[in-house]
Design a protein that fits this description.
The chain is α/β, with parallel strands linked by helices and 310 residues long. It folds into two domains: 2-114 and 240-305, FAD/NAD(P)-binding domain (3-Layer(bba) Sandwich); 117-236, FAD/NAD(P)-binding domain (3-Layer(bba) Sandwich), CATH 3.50.50. The protein has helices at residues 11-21, 55-67, 135-138, 154-164, 183-190, 286-305, and strands spanning 2-7, 27-31, 43-44, 53-54, 71-75, 79-83, 92-96, 101-109, 113-115, 131-132, 146-150, 169-173, 195-198, 201-208, 213-220, 226-230, 233-236, 240-242, 272-274. The strands form five sheets. Strands 1, 2, 5, 6, 7, 8 and 19 form a seven-stranded mixed β-sheet that branches. A five-stranded parallel β-sheet has the order 10-17-11-12-13, covered by helices on one side. A three-stranded antiparallel β-sheet has the order 14-15-16, with no helix packed on it. α1 (11-21) links the parallel β1 (2-7) and β2 (27-31). α1 packs parallel to α2, α1 (11-21) runs parallel beside α6 (286-305) and α4 (154-164) packs parallel to α5. The chain starts with a strand and ends in a 5-residue tail after the last helix. The mean pLDDT is 97. The structure holds flavin-adenine dinucleotide. Residues 7-13, 30-34, 36-38, 40-41, 44, 46, 78-79, 110-113, 115, 133-134, 137, 243, 246, 276-277, 284-287, 289 line the site of flavin-adenine dinucleotide (FAD). Residues 3-293 form the FAD/NAD(P)-binding domain. This is Thioredoxin reductase. FAD binds at residues 3-18, 267-277. NAD(+) binds at residues 146-160. Keywords: Disulfide bond, FAD, Flavoprotein, NAD, NADP, Oxidoreductase, Redox-active center.
Length: 310
Amino acid sequence: PFEVLIIGGGPAGAAAAIYTARKGIRVGVAAERFGGQVLDTMGIENFISVSHTEGPKLVAQLEQHVKDYDVDVMNLQRAEKLIPAKREGGLHEVVLANGASLKAKAVILSTGARWRQMNVPGEDEYRNKGVAYCPHCDGPLFKGKRVAVIGGGNSGVEAAIDLAGIVAHVTLIEFDSQLRADAVLQRKLASLPNVKILTSAMTTKVNGDGEKVSGLSYKDRNSGAEHDIALEGIFVQIGLVPNTEWLKDAVALTQRGEIEIDARGETSQPGIFAAGDCTTVPYKQIVIAMGAGSTAALSAFDYMIRLPEE
Ligand code: FAD
């Protein structure tokens, strides 16, 4: 068995692996796709101390850094079930999709999250070519340009307020007849001169010139009329879904499926820790996931040294 087993190989899992291995502990990482969301990212300009990098390049460096240590990396392995230890200090079990089962004294969950997509024509084609999901990451790329934000919940309205300070104009598009964000955010949004709010509007298509986004089409759900808007960027803010469906019976999750953790990265189960986008950590970013992975690793080590000798 492993002493520490990490599930997920994004920035959180990679950081957890390095911090754990540096304690001289036997550590394994099982990841469906090593690199995680970073693999799908083009330019990264907020990875502090690196002015500009690209997702695949950062993933190669993460992998190299992990390989500097004696870490058992099991890539292309999907975890399907977690069975917590029956008694404190016992072994937790993780069952993989290939039927194998891994055991460890401590487990760190870092399975990340995925952005909910609109699933309209053009969305995939123009992803990273005008279609964006992270305003903190990509907002500055649209400085002085026109953008739409899809979604009128808290994250959509926060994104629209944030972007209105950077871009020329923001159109906020909400499917429902009213926004769902907190009233204070809605008031702030309504006060901004360069924001237009469309409700009862269903986005039907991302339009482009073959290279980048040139606009979008939406249907007015009251009149049924179709409209086109010319713009350069589309921020999709209709939900970030944690990859935790397989953990429902193992650790406490919030209503939105985030793993509940405390400041030390501890979950509801002794000896099971979690880090990054799959958790309740506020703000989902690479540097934050790396910090959280390091925290979880140090907490796992702290847990291990307190276990009675077998
Ligand atoms: P992830 O990166 O999601 O990694 C999760 C890992 O878990 C993966 O290895 C995955 O394969 C694995 N996994 C999932 N389920 C299972 C399972 N059941 N069994 C085994 N393994 C599993 N952040 C920034 O700071 N700057 C940016 O510029 C930026 N741009 C972004 C652009 C895009 C298009 C996207 C999608 C995100 C961007 N982000 C950016 C956000 C950033 O990528 C995430 O915050 C960060 O990757 C989270 O790290 P993580 O390790 O928690 O999860």
